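Reopening this ticket.

The earlier resolution said the output was attached, but the attachment link was broken on my side. Pasting everything inline this time so it's all in one place.
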Amino acid sequence: MALVGAGPAAAQVRALAEREEFGAGPALAGGSVVWSERAGPAALSVRAQPAGGGAISAVARPRLPKSAGALTSWSLAGSGAGPAPGRFATALLGAKASGLRLVGGPLSGPVDLVVDGVTSGRRVLGGLFATADGAATLEQLPGRSRLVVRPVGGPPRTIFGPGNPQPPAIAGRLGAVPVVDRRGGLAAVTVTDLQSGAVVRRVDAGPLRRFSVIAIGLAPDGGLAITAEDGSGLDAVGSAPAGASRLGVLLEGDGLGLVQPTGDRVALAQEDPGTDPRGARVVVIEPGSRPGRPSVVFSGPPASSVDALSYDGTSVAWGARGCQFVARAARPSSRSTVPSGPCARTEVAVRTQSPSAGLRRKKPRLSIEVACLTSPGRACRVAVRALDGDGRRLGRTGSRIRNGRARALFIELGPRAAKRAGGDSSLVQYSIRTTDPGGRSRVFSAF
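Inline output:
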């Protein structure tokens, strides 16, 4: 592991690097935060830094073989809590059908795990995990899945499957998977020792029985947290400390997502009801003085989505659309704006209208709703282009939207553009550009 530079001093929230649409990370591992960036057409750069701040280290530079084609997407995972040695695992997906390579190793180097051919035929990678002694892959076939543990220097072995399609969680040497009833509702969660394959604990669903699982999180000591929905719009966070035999409800709400427990605290992604369309933010909560009313320990800046989450009890790391963050999970670290650094600081949420709903015959137009979630200035500067299924421009518009407000934007269409945009089979893609007051911009797509 080579030192490549000094990072910023410990801060409330740090922006580590930009995050591609099909990228991954960050993750916490052994007291460090590890993240990845594209390093060429077929390679990644994996870097790490103490979670509290300090020198940035180059961990690895995994590369796809030429036969795999160009790098199209990748996964990243970390393992190791507290003083445990940190490990990383990444899966690189190439443009060709057989192009997937799994790479892993300790943060201190060198790489000690390289596996090609994890997927083949109709088997696809559904999830990647770093374990205490290697990596694990969730491999999916139509209607079924299996979790394959891949220790360094040992043969792969299947732990969960092939019948349970629910997503597992892994922490160190333990794995957890939801058990569902015949109707697909949650019945229990089993915790398994990944080395022996033995079930060491079964946790009853309790008040979350028959809920549908959204996400599951596992702590290295066996503590569990789960987000689930009841089908009528109610979401809940269930938790069970290490040794508990039944889930309890920590929080009821709406728009819950990824979750990760440590001790009696839980980090989760939750929709932010401040705007419509809604954004999301990462929060860390702990039991409050009244059941179902937890206290908020930390709250991060809003984002359009939260796609990765890692929490070790001291720090929390997450991936939002366009950026990778890490923060100390404490009340003084909470903030509502994206910090300065390598990422654009304007965040918006959008909701599009399908042209199949019908365009007006007179003065046809497309509409898109845009909410300004946060900006370093007083407003979000937004430019929108509409493209047809062949990538040809249909029209454009733009606006400045005040922080915390939403606005419907309209794109007027000429006769030819309206013909291309209308119809049940038409595909309209929106290219949204946000620009910070300092001039930094970011572009993303919506359909």
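Reporter confirms the inline version is readable. The longest helix spans residues 415-421. The radius of gyration is 22 Å.
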